[in-house]
Amino acid sequence: MALQFSTVTRKGPITIVTLSRPEVYNALHTDAHFELEGVFNDFAADPDQWVAIVTGAGDKAFCAGNDLKWQAAGGKRGWGESGFGGLTSRFDCDKPIIAAVNGVAMGGGFEIALSCDLIIASENATFALPEPRVGLAALAGGLHRLPRQIGLKRAMGMILTARHVPAREGLELGFVNEVVPAGEALAAAERWAQTICSNSPMSIRASKQTLSRGLEVSLQQAIAEQRDYPAVKAMAASQDYIEGPKAFAEKRAPNWTGK
Prior knowledge:
Helices cover 41% and strands 16% of the residues. By secondary structure, it is an alpha/beta fold.
């Protein structure tokens, strides 16, 4: 697939997706959304790719959200089934996805980051759901994910004021995992990804799926049903399930295959 609005780099089992519209602070329009949907579909389907990182081109922006100038000029608006940036409605990917936020993450850009499993932010990163300032609302998941991740009152404080939150405050609020110096977000995200990849990918997928599904039901139901989750069954039937204990007993590093 020829890419116009993003780039994809693979480093071993790690896929790095870069939103590449720096002239508009990596804001996204319809064609970009559908391109990114294809990119993340490919990542999800590739058994040799275990972790994805999404970041923005340049040093000013992760993603400024919806391309309002494109919309105001009459450009069509919309995205595919997987949502804004190919991620905000992607509920069936059990592989970890990390946001390396290297600058502004506004509106849909923040919603992309919130849909990721980890957020690594540079010191110059800022986050906001500013849609009310232009007569819109954060309907690509932001209004639902933010209160789930940081609590109702803290989320209301951001949403109702549409204020900008710097990276350090994001760390204090709980939606950022780590803050690093400007220009180092991607390198730090790769470090996190490499650490994840030192574990069995089958176990990682089982863990993410169990956590995600378990939060949708009661604790009692989650514990009772977890062994029937597809990713847990796949883990228990995998070569990695045998390799891990064997490597431990032989006092050597495990050779994970993701199978």
